[in-house]
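May I ask for a protein sequence together with how it folds?
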Amino acid sequence: MYSFLTRNGQTLAFGLGLLLAIGMVLSIYLGDVGTWSQIPENNITRYETGMFNFGMKASFVLMGAAAIAALLFGIFHFASNPKGALKGIIGLIAVIALFFIIYSAADPQPEMLEKMAELDFNVTQGQSKMITGAMWTALILAGAAVLATAVSEIINFFR
């Protein structure tokens, strides 16, 4: 299986992505976009649309499959090379620690919680802190990835 995915993995991923993109575009164009965009804003039915359901469901299935595959490959890598997996475990602990530091420092803003309650999103203070922690952690990690990529490219340029 590993050798098959090594040879054909990118082609299979591209083909699956292409099929899902075509399915999403078809579901949008076959839906009634004109009437969907004309629903009054104060009507809760604006959240009840079926034309984007295929894309959302496909995204959730792919995210679930990726999470399961990452977990299984992580367990396999750890079992086959525990000493080499130590760096990954330390990195995971660092990301979790970063999240909890940001979560602890987050300040739920009452005016934002009131606005969310008006829109029927009953977000509690704990959920608001969780959202803030997750967003800032993701932004910091994305920034670190961009910075690491830029630094490594500069280092490779001078080698």
